[in-house]
Amino acid sequence: MNKTKIHLWLLTSRSADLMEEGEADDSEYDDTDDIKSLLESGNSGAKTDLLDDQQSGSVLEEMDALLQDDDDVGSAISEKLANITNKAFSKQHSIDAVKKKKESHKRPKNCDKVIVPKVNKEIWRQMLKQAFTKKRDLRLMNVQSLITKSTCAVVSVANKLLNLDGQKHDAEIRNCLDAIYLLGHANTTMSMQRRDLLRPVLKSDYAA
Q1: Whole-prediction pTM value?
Q2: Contact 112/10 with Cβ under 8 angstroms?
Q3: Which residue has the higher pLDDT, 141 or 8?
Q4: Per-residue pLDDT tens digits for 106-146
Q5: DSSP annotation of 16
Q6: What's the CA gap between 107 and 202, in Å, rounded?
Q7: Comparing C-alpha atoms, which of 117, 128, 84, 158 is closest to residue 7?
Q8: CA 103 to CA 98: how far, in whole Å?
C-alpha cells in the first residue's frame, strides 16, 4: 500500500451536536431575554454605571485586580453587555440553543476556507476501530464548528460596517478583523492538534 499523508478534508458535518459546551456552571443559559433587554436599553445607563464603578473603586481593589493575573484589561463596557458576555463564558449552554445560533450564521459563499476540516475516508475507517479516538476527534471538530460559526457572525458585522461607511467605522472594522484573525488562528491550531492526536492510531503506511 502506498504511503498516504494524513489529510483533513471537508466531507460531512455530522459532529455538530456532539460536544458538551461549557463546564463552569451546570445551569443552562438562554441569552434571549438578556439580549432583548440590552437592545431595548441601548447604551443608556452605561455612563452612569461607569461613574458608579469608578467612585466605588479603592486602592485595595485596584491592587487585588493587579495581583489576580497579568491579563491586560481595557475600559469597562455596558453592564448589560458585560453580563451577557460573562454568562456566555461561564454557564452551560443547551444543545438546542447552540444549534439555533449556529444555523443563523451562514458561511459566505466566497469564504471557502472557513470550514471544519474532516478526516478523509480511509483514515475514518481506521478510526472506527478506535472508539475513544473517534469520539475525541468528533468533540474537537465540534469546537471548530463553533469557531467557524463565530467567524461567520463577525464577518457579517464587518461586511455591514464596510457597506455603511468603512471610514467612519474604521476602528470597529479593525476590531472585527482582529477577531477574525484570532479565530482563524484558533481553527488552524485545532486542526494541527487533531492531526497530531490521530498519528499514533494509524498504521505506519498512513503516517506522514
Answers
A1: 0.67
A2: no
A3: 141
A4: 999 999 999 999 888 778 777 777 777 788 889 999 999 99
A5: T
A6: 32
A7: 117
A8: 9
CA angle 96-148-13, nearest 5°?
60
Confidence label for 168 from pLDDT (cuts 50, 70 and 90): confident
SS (H, E, C) 164-180: HHCCCCHHHHHHHHHHH
DSSP-derived letter for residue 109 is: T
Dist CA 126 CA 132 (whole Å): 12
For the purposes of burial, counting CB atoms within 10 Å of the CB of 144, is it exposed (0-12), middle (13-18) or buried (19 or more)? Answer: buried
pLDDT for 171 beyond 60: yes
Q: What are phi and psi of 119, to 5 degrees?
A: -70, 140
Burial of 176 (0-12, 13-18, 19+ CB in 10 A): buried
Residue 26 has pLDDT above 60, yes or no: no
Cell 451536536 identifies what position? 17
CA distance 31 to 16: 20
Query: Could you read off the pLDDT of 80-112 as tens digits, one per residue?
Result: 999 999 999 999 999 999 999 999 999 999 999
Domain ranges in the chain are 28-206
Element (H, E) at 118: strand 118-119
Q: Which of 32, 46, 37 lies closest to 79, judged by CA?
A: 46
